[in-house]
């Protein structure tokens, strides 16, 4: 039923009032609310309805948390069952039937070699808590303090997780080059770039004068998410596994965003066939509710009782929703579906590049997709724009500079067309798509149609010309 003009005015006023009060009351640290000024009131699957009555296709999915989309029936039923049972909702780390069922389902999805010799630590509500636990675990088990991490990484917002992320200053963290084919730090790209990255790592670890603090572990993302949706080459992943195993360095795979079918396999490490020593998990494992765990080899379990704890590590509703989500993804082969549909979407996006030279690169795995936007009129060697302005973000990789202003314009044009997308990458110039794994073919087409239209609009908008100095 159509909304009448008076009713629409009331909805708009309520919507604007909520946003205004948020800006007055909440911290300046808020992020998504700045670029996505919507007020969700209802949601189902891919669709969000705002307080102003508008509907949106949600390709942010709670930053990858909603593997099954919003309010999936199996998740709602699992939560309702716990609520109706009278079971306690807060139990610290006590054993419960709900927790036992979640752990059993989780272990069913793990690489067999790890599952047969694994322990699980329930860490608290967020992925950053699990990262902290993983770093503390390997430091306790090895007696070392150093850490190997990668450029472009993002592991969370708490102190230790930030230290492991790109841009940190902790002297115990050795920063290693992550293979980035489009903007290879060695100017090589492809297999050669990945090989140089591996050699760099080996040389630092084996050079007694390198100054590397003896590493307790190496932490990496099989696909860098916030870093710009950059998949690690499978051969490089296997090389990192050999490098760490040969030197008795525990390998930590951060699967917070890549796990639960997102990349086309249940866990992203399965693409390369490696078995890490530690896996960090959150987001989708809670079925949209807060849950974070670390799974690790039992011989690393050197903690004394109480060495790592957290009040909210026994979230029964999240465990019930998580178990239902894990089972649904596994039983319905949604990882395989993500691989097929993701390849189809990536192919169409690559096809758009012929008509949109601002598309520098399209990449991803499964339904974790990134479109890097660039300034095609800039000199890739850094000699300056033909228009005489310097608005693009310079790099030294021989490719056009990043175009964060254009990416921001595309995000806003998408929102105007009822499509929610995220930005990421080194310069916030990568448009990111993280749709639910339940995405249909028709919905995928609608998403790409809206994105293509938004891209065209952003390219010709006065805002875009003002930001870049482009002429009509």
Automatic annotation (TrEMBL):
Listed Basic and acidic residues bias regions: 382-393
Pfam family, any one: Aminotran_3
Matches recorded under InterPro entries: Aminotrans_3 (IPR005814), Aminotrans_3_PPA_site (IPR049704), Dat (IPR004637), PyrdxlP-dep_Trfase (IPR015424), PyrdxlP-dep_Trfase_major (IPR015421), PyrdxlP-dep_Trfase_small (IPR015422)
Matching CDD domains: OAT_like
Region (Disordered): 376-400
Superkingdom field: Bacteria
Cofactor: pyridoxal 5'-phosphate
PROSITE patterns (UniProt xref): AA_TRANSFER_CLASS_3
SUPFAM superfamilies in alphabetical order: PLP-dependent transferases
Enzyme Commission number: 2.6.1.76
Keywords attached to this entry: Aminotransferase, Pyridoxal phosphate, Transferase
Pathway: Amine and polyamine biosynthesis; ectoine biosynthesis; L-ectoine from L-aspartate 4-semialdehyde: step 1/3
Keyword Transferase: yes
Family to which this protein belongs: Belongs to the class-III pyridoxal-phosphate-dependent aminotransferase family.
Protein name in the entry: Diaminobutyrate--2-oxoglutarate transaminase
Record organism: Streptomyces chryseus
């Amino acid at each position: 039923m159509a909304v009448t003009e008076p009713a629409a005015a009331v909805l708009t006023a309520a919507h604007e009032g909520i946003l205004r009060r948020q800006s007055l009351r909440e911290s300046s640290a808020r992020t998504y609310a700045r670029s996505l000024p919507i007020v969700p009131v209802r949601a189902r699957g891919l669709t969000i309805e705002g307080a102003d009555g508008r509907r949106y296709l949600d390709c942010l999915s709670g930053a990858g948390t909603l593997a099954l989309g919003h309010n999936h029936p199996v998740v709602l039923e699992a939560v309702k069952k716990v609520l109706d049972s009278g079971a306690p909702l807060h139990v610290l780390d006590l054993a419960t039937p709900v927790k036992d069922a979640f752990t059993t389902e989780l272990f069913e999805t793990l690489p067999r070699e790890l599952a047969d010799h694994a322990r699980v630590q329930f860490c608290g509500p967020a992925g950053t808590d699990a990262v902290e636990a993983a770093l503390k675990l390997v430091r306790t088990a090895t007696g070392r303090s150093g850490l190997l991490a990668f450029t472009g990484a993002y592991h969370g917002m708490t102190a230790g997780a930030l230290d492991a992320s790109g841009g940190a200053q902790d002297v115990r963290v050795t920063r290693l080059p992550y293979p980035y084919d489009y903007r290879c730090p060695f100017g090589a790209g492809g297999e050669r770039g990945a090989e140089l990255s591996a050699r760099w790592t080996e040389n630092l670890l084996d050079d007694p004068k390198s100054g590397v603090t003896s590493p307790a572990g190496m932490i990496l993302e099989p696909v860098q998410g916030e870093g710009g949706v950059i998949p690690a080459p499978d051969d490089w992943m296997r090389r990192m596994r050999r490098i760490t195993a040969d030197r008795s360095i525990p390998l930590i795979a951060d699967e917070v965003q890549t796990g639960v079918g997102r990349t086309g396999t249940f866990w992203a490490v399965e693409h390369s066939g490696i078995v890490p020593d530690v896996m960090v998990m959150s987001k989708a494992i809670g079925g949209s509710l807060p849950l974070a765990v670390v799974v690790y080899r039992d011989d690393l379990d050197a903690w004394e009782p109480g060495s790592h704890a957290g009040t909210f590590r026994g979230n029964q509703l999240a465990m019930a929703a998580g178990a239902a989500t894990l089972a649904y993804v596994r039983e319905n082969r949604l990882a395989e579906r993500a691989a097929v549909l993701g390849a189809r979407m990536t192919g169409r996006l690559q096809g758009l590049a012929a008509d949109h030279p601002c598309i520098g690169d399209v990449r991803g795995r499964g339904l974790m997709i990134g479109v890097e936007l660039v300034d095609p009129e800039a000199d890739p060697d850094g000699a300056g724009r033909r228009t005489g302005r310097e608005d693009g973000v310079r790099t030294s990789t021989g490719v056009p500079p990043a175009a964060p202003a254009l990416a921001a314009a595309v995000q806003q044009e998408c929102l105007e067309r009822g499509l929610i997308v995220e930005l990421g990458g080194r310069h916030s110039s990568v448009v990111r798509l993280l749709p639910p794994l339940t995405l249909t073919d028709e919905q995928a087409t609608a998403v790409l149609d809206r994105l293509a239209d938004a891209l065209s609009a952003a390219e010709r908008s006065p805002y875009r010309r003002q930001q870049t100095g482009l002429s009509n």
